[in-house]
């Protein structure tokens, strides 16, 4: 990593910590927030807008983000070690998702054990297939399908034994001319509850990329991708969209395209903890 990238990484880390601290303080301030309740995957959400994984990685805010207008908060992405270090989650009205790192170096048994540890804490679970640790799995379709099938079966048993339904979804990269239809087909066959489409290529989250998302053509392209996935998946699978949402119009356009839920991350860093109030009006 060159000096420029190192400096950017330091700045991003500081900005992330400051933003999280401000959001933590804001959660304690009494303030009216908009409510747009809905039911998705059998779960009731206070609003369709949530916080993406990577922002509140270790669950500092957890379910308290409902006080800011968010309907859900996805913590992680977590490994087995990260799960072991989690503190008890704070109470609140927002739904809590736990994003799990799928590491190609780990066995299916170890990965199932990780899912088992996360299940009691989560309202929904996410298998992260966009991180570098999972990249080798994407080039081995048989191994990936076997792993996802094992995790789906472990998840089914947990829901039966625990007598509550914790939806299971997978997070997939969804870029121009790279809509993940083959992976979506795999999820449909295995009866996953939802698909989280990530429209951004990932870190580093530069100011240039943030400004690029203000281009209506780029927003329209993300909506086209969601529309394509909705046609392909039908109505039986929930769709969540993340990447580039900065305004109320962006949020509504993704939902009009077929996303039931929408997540934000970088916009929180740029616009502050009251972002949900502006987007949900």
UniProtKB/TrEMBL annotation:
Pfam families: DHO_dh. GO terms for molecular function: dihydroorotate dehydrogenase activity; transaminase activity. GO terms for cellular component: cytoplasm; plasma membrane. Keywords: Aminotransferase, Flavoprotein, FMN, Oxidoreductase, Pyrimidine biosynthesis, Transferase. Pathway: Pyrimidine metabolism; UMP biosynthesis via de novo pathway. GO terms for biological process: 'de novo' pyrimidine nucleobase biosynthetic process; 'de novo' UMP biosynthetic process. Residues 221-279 form the Dihydroorotate dehydrogenase catalytic domain. It comes from the Bacteria. InterPro entries: Aldolase_TIM, DHO_dehydrogenase, Dihydroorotate_DH_1_2, Dihydroorotate_DH_cat. Transmembrane segments: none annotated. Its cofactor is FMN. This is Phosphoserine aminotransferase. Catalyzes the conversion of dihydroorotate to orotate with quinone as electron acceptor.
